[in-house]
Description:
The complex is a heterodimer. By secondary structure, chain A is mainly alpha-helical. Chain A has 12 helices and 2 strands; from the N terminus they run αααααββααααααα. Chain A has a two-stranded antiparallel ribbon with strand order 1-2. In chain A, a hairpin with a 5-residue loop joins strand 1 (147-149) and strand 2. In chain A, helix 1 runs parallel beside helix 6, helix 1 runs antiparallel to helix 9 and helix 1 packs antiparallel against helix 11 (256-276). The longest helix of chain A is centred in the N-terminal third of the chain and has 36 residues, at 7-42. Helix content of chain B is 39%, strand content 18%. Chain B has 2 domains: 22-168 and 312-385, Response regulator (Rossmann fold, 3-Layer(aba) Sandwich); 171-302 and 391-404, Response regulator (Rossmann fold). In chain B, strand 6, helix 7 (199-214) and strand 7 (218-225) form a beta-alpha-beta unit. Chain B: This is ABC transporter substrate-binding protein. Chain B: InterPro entries: ABC_urea-bd_UrtA, Peripla_BP_I, TAT_signal.
Amino acid sequence: MIGDYTYTEFTSILAMQGFAGLTLFSVFVLMALGLAIIFGQMGVINMAHGEFMILGAYMTYLCSQFFSVYLPSLFSIYFFFAMILAFAASFLLGMLVEWGLIRFLYRRPLDTLLATWGLSLILQQAYRSIFGAREVGVTLPDWLMGSIALTDIIEIPINGLFVMGLTALITLGVYFGMFRSNWGKRMRAVVQNRTMAGAVGINTKMVDRMTFGLGCGIAGIAGSAFTMIGSTGPTAGQLYIVDTFLIVVFGGAGSLIGTIASAFSISQAQSTIEFFLSGSMAKVLTLLTVVGILMLRPQGLFTLKIRR
Amino acid sequence: MRQKTISPFSITRRALLAGIAVLPALTFASAPLRAQEVATADANTTGLAVTDDTVTVGILHSITGTMAISETGSVEAEKLAIDQINAAGGVLGRKIEYIQEDGASDWPTFAEKAKKLLVENKTAAVFGCWTSASRKAVLPVFEQYNGMLYYPTFYEGLEESPNVIYTGQEATQQIIAGIDWVVREKGAKSFYLLGSDYIWPRTANKIARKHIEKLGLKVSGEDYYPLGNTQFNSVINKIKLKKPDVIYAIVVGGSNVAFYKQLKAAGIDMSKEKPLLLTISVTEDEVRGIGGENIAGAYASMKYFESLPNDNNKAFVSAFKKMWGEDSVIGDVTQAAYLGPWLWKAAVEKAGSFDIDKVRAASPGIELTTAPEGYVRIHENHHLWSRTRIGHAREDGQFDVVFETKDLIEPNPFPEGYQ
């Protein structure tokens, strides 16, 4: 007996709490990846990140509607199509935004902050006008909403597993894209020395556009995945933005490893404190710790050299 | 006209529509006075926006920003009520015109717009606000310029302003009957209290805890999460460990969706009622975002459900859907918002005047036999006597009403022994 609980109960809870922490970790990484790419590689503070996520969520909603009406036989796998559509939509919108707005504001990070904040308001109102002010309900295939019962107490949510798998896949994809492909090589060349990269024949403008689009596209996939755990409404993106920035800044801008390390430490700290204290207290303590560490180490946990 | 029996089966929309061809004319208990009987100079001694043919009122809700999700239904209900009142001859023979302002989910904006409606537009009444924060922001404005606000949301109580009529339930009305029911009918012995972290859930849970402890039962846990929180796995684990009989949930907004989806994904099947879930923060409106399949089997405790089988409600639901679309849903607050214009009309006609002070004096005792929720009466403390009902959530997003209190419950915004 430990406290009021039997040994089995206690170990089960440890296991489930560990799983909850890992789910939170995956969610954080998925949220932050797109922003980390844009902020880290381009120095653009994208306040509209949450709205790109919600675009993905709305695409999932449209997909679920479409499949339930026209292709009910394929409804159980519509989610995969939805994620592709979510990526495509956010990617294209991202490129458009880069072309129409961001490219005039490079080297003016504070102006990008204001401009993308304005963009986030515009997008929110656009969602409200198109989809209505109320939240929409995204119907999910049954297999995604179930759980696997390992013992009487331990039940592993399938959507948690799904998010974990997806996060691993996308993180690996980003890693190979950035560090093992020619496109990644070009992107890193532009970050390190724009003039030189241009001189050797890299189309730096295209690289910028693709990078911004990619960051937004990943946000779209994240938004699509989050229809499993959260709400889909015009302003739902705001729910994620604070955590996302926290992770990117804490991890050190521009470092993929930093983002992952910071997501891991924040998620584990938060879910442990949530369990022993309360939800609000967990948030307060996590934020205080992060602020404390950032005061000692303003550059974040990990840093890379980026262009000045 | 009391609702004596409650059918366990709720009526489908189709049957309901088929049954009602035309909206029956709504009538009032108090004998209405007509325009020709009251000259404008007598009915309006304080310079309100009243002419021989019209009277202007304000509608003040958020139609942009976070709260637009919730407040849209209230705006729709208020406009429907105003339309119906006009169709039935208006107030004191005068047609109601409204000026709508957008609070934009921002509390200082609410205060500013309230001032505009009172000072510039001289509106005779304002129907509006949703969150307690917005009400607290406009309260000093209404008290300074002596306006009349009809506030529709169920809320935490602890307030009684001469310038506000509260058409939703205060906390004790909503909470105590619900807990009594779950103890009596379901034999609940232990409760886990959960809420979003702001004044309403905290005050409501305080009342719930006091009441549970008074009954000699156990509160096995109490937890709050910041507004907008989207991760509930830790608290779900805690609930699994503590094994309470009842999860008492007051989660709001986007968090609601996350909470119910994760509860379901964690293998807590609410239809098994082990534990049973009782909420006071989920109406038909919220279920739309959550998804009926994610909340089916939960119980909600409030005064109104769209599926209420009485004739007033059938007429109201069909008129609402006719005006705002077949797929619209009506939650507790939407119905309470609908009462606002009707209660104001009744008070004005009882007073024979639009003057705020006279309307205020006439308000206590005003009764509405045509309310969709059945029968309501304004208490001295400006809240409504009302019944509390328990709804059982269905897959299609509606609730089956499984219980209603026999008597009207007295509003008690300052409950002794509960603070």
